[in-house]
Amino acid sequence: MPSVSTAEITAKVRELCIAAAYELPEDAVRALRQAIQKEESPQGRAIFEELLRNAEVAASERIPYCQDTGLAVLFVKKGPGVTIEGGTLTAAIAEGVRQGYTDGYLRASVVADPAFDRKNTKDNTPPIIHMEESVEDVLEITLVPKGAGSENMSRLVMLPPSAGWEGIKKEVVETVRKAGANPCPPIVVGVGIGGNFEHVAYLAKKALVRELGKPSPDPKTAALEQELLEAVNKTGIGPQGLGGTVTALAVHIETFPTHIASLPMAVNLGCHAYRHKTAVLLGGESHG
Ligand code: SF4
Hints:
With 288 residues, the chain is α/β, with parallel strands linked by helices. It has two domains: 3-22 and 65-147 and 275-282, Dihydrodipicolinate Reductase, domain 2; 149-270, no CATH class. Helices cover 39% and strands 23% of the residues. The strands form three sheets. Strands 4-2-5-10 form a four-stranded mixed sheet. Helix 1 (6-22) packs across helix 4. It is globular. The model has no long low-confidence stretch (mean pLDDT 97). Iron/sulfur cluster binds next to helix 5.
């Protein structure tokens, strides 16, 4: 039976935390480069150049791309036959986050007891972990450090089914418009449609794990992503909220069947620090 030790998991998560903070992934860099060609405002183009320069400096000097190194959100894919040796998967991941944020000198941004004393936990734990079962014997961990500037501008709405696609579109554009400069545009818009109250928020978050700009595999959903991207970019918010034609780099939609009487939708905004790193500990090659 394939197994992975908690020590291996901890070491890999530590590595992911540091790499995600220092190295803007290739898909995000590519999207920023492409945005220079699309942006009509000279000021907006200059901002994209600055962001790309920032990514280069962060990677070469081994410093975070953004001071908000985020709340550690992890998506774990695990096969049914994979066993964890030496403890629990959750504890091993949390220890990796603790070590990564401490050893990488990344900002500790988590406070315990959120409604009262809001005392900093000092090591960015606990992380938020989403588990997904895989049919193959694989153990894959994706880290998405999520900054609060964009997270705070996100929104969940339980629409009546009669609202339909037009209702969803209106809510997405309104969310982006109200957010303005707060989520550090250019943004990536993660949209969840369907499921129920808690699942739709997960869908919107999962949409932000996808390779930036990669369309949905479903052609109908991919067409809606394009339609929403054009609508969002018409807001004119632009890079850093200073006006322009590129407010969003992409819109990603994830869907799930829902109840006949419901139309849940959620918008999770991602910022230009589109950070994500994946490690395959079992069943394939590591990639970023
Ligand atoms: S929203 Fe993103 S870019 Fe803005 S401060 Fe937070 S992490 Fe950094």
